[in-house]
What does this fold into?
Amino acid sequence: MAARGEGAAVAPAGPVEVVRTALAHAWAMLFLVVLLPVGLLCFPFDPRQRMHDRLSVVWARGALWLVGVRVEAEGALHVRPGERYVIAANHQSTLDILALLVVLQGRAPFRFLAKRALFRVPVLGWGMRLYGHTPVDRRARGAVADLGAAQRNLMQRWSTVFFPEGTRSATGGLLPFRLGAFRVAAVAGARVLPVTLVGAGALQPKSRYAAAPGVLRVVVHPPLDPPGPSLEELRASMEACRAAVASALPAALREGGEAGRGESGEPHA
It folds into this structure.
């Protein structure tokens, strides 16, 4: 029988799971209330925000512990300390964000490219702006400016996480990738780090509030060389990255079966 965190079907959320998830949300918001003033106090002495990076891992571990999710990491040694990457991961659940923080934040400090609506959420949005995460506009007109901000972060400060599918997969299957992340990597001269998240969609599907306990695997693949600037080279890098991400998924999830716009270049998180 398949493990719960490895793609098996999950029963509807029970009251215990709902309570545990509510506690995790409360933990997340309370921790942010503490983290914001600490960050402001540390800014003059900590311009690279190392304190934030350490505390964000504590924040993520605490939330995962409350919902009963254990993270197993493979391939983390592929990450070279001090190098800045375009991190390209599949996206099934909000648990993905916590798992990436636990596995990668200590090795390659990063910030997320996230949909602009999240930056309007009180406390959460304030923290995201304060600590350098990049808002992304789902409309094509705003996308170019958003990519520019992500590129500057990548070249000067941190790695940047992209979810190049453009949205969370409703089925857990891998959707077509978009070109935005690879354009940023090309201009910044950064290597692309493919990452596969396995099990998050079973533990907390897109339409479900509560997370189920289980195992979430994070597979870090060898980095890909910076893509060239031509459309052909960008597409080749995108397809190589997608193939790497797909290689660690169960066979049934390697194709999402949903329409995508892999050549649009729109940078979504």
